[in-house]
Amino acid sequence: MRRLFDELKRSFKVWTIPTDGVWRLRAVKCSPNESEHPYHHRVDRLLTNISRFHGDWRRNFCMPFYKDRIYPHLVAVLGNPKPIRDIRERIVAMAQGTVLEIGVGPGVNFPHYDATKVTKIFALEPNRGMIPRAEEQAGRTKLDIEFLDLPGERIPLAESSVDTVVSTFTLCTIPGVVDAIQGMERVLKPGGRFIFFEHGLAPDAPVRRWQQRTEPLFQWAFEGCHVTRDIPSLIRDGGFAIEQMDTAYLAPFPKSGSYCFWGVALPKP
Question: What DSSP letter does each residue of 44-76 carry, written as one string?
Answer without folding.
Answer: HHHHHHHHHHHHHHIIIIIHHHIIIIIHHHHHH
